[in-house]
Amino acid sequence: MRLCKSTLGGLILLLATGVTSHADVTTSQSNAPVSRISGLLSLEHSALANVPKATRKSTEKGSSQVSYDRVWLADQPAVSGGQEWACLAKALYFEARGETVKGQFAVAEVILNRVDSGAYPNSVCAVVNQGSGRRNACQFSFTCDGKDDRIREADAYDAAGKIAQVMLSGAPRKLTQGATHFHTTQVRPRWAHRFPRTAQIGAHLFYRQPL
């Protein structure tokens, strides 16, 4: 049990004046004030040494300490995960691998913002694959562009996987201000003029769906 300074100070004062819970009881030498004070200090130090460090919120480095650069990302351990992780990593690879690390994190935010929104499916895989079975209805172009979806750039996929893991572990979403949509600067979808733009990161413009 950790003793606060005021409690410990009170004990020292009581012991130094010879006051105990039974003042008329003669204490043995082993319970003399000096010995007891030393024992209490020892217990205090032991307790402090055993107090666990603050629990980290998500990744080994701590989700609140995300740095959007390649050096930081390269320092993160290689990961693999379940279906949700695989769907997010794949989406980042095909939709944003040519972007900066920051840009890829931003795309991950969009996908997870959709998962949290009642207007979209409630899982990463369902969000990524929404509309993929209907012509011109897919939400993410790689799911219906007819191209081969094999992973050919191992390093890029490794980076996407790390970003997916960090985001799924609870990293803060502070890049896109709640964006649910994005597009490249080379296109201008019909909905873009109706949605408030929240950010531009690299070649992507980000928007939040109106309430």
Brief summary of the model shown:
The protein has 211 residues and is mostly helical. It has helices at residues 5-16, 33-50, 70-74, 83-96, 101-116, 124-128, 154-168, and strands spanning 181-184, 197-201, 204-207. It has seven helices and three strands; from the N terminus they run αααααααβββ.
Write up this protein.
By secondary structure, the chain is mostly helical. It has two domains: 5-50, no CATH class; 67-207, no CATH class. Helix content is 40%, strand content 6%. The chain is built from seven helices and three strands; from the N terminus they run H-H-H-H-H-H-H-E-E-E. Strands 1-3-2 form a three-stranded antiparallel sheet, with helices on one face. The longest helix is centred in the first third of the chain and has 18 residues, at 33-50. The radius of gyration is 28 Å and the shape is globular. Mean pLDDT is 78; it is low at 1-41 and 43-62.
The portion of residues forming beta strands comes to 5-15%
How large is the radius of gyration?
28 Å
Strand order across the largest sheet: 1-3-2
Sheet with most strands: 3 strands, antiparallel
Number of strands: 3
Provide the succession of SSEs: HHHHHHHEEE
Overall outline? globular
The pLDDT mean sits at 78
Distance between the amino and carboxyl termini: 51 Å
Give the number of domains. Answer: 2
Number of helices: 7
Structural class: mainly alpha
Pfam families: Hydrolase_2
Organism: Szabonella alba
GO molecular function: hydrolase activity
Domain Cell wall hydrolase SleB: 98-207
Keywords:
single chain; 211 residues; mainly alpha; 2 domains; 3-stranded antiparallel sheet; 7 helices; 3 strands; globular; disordered N terminus
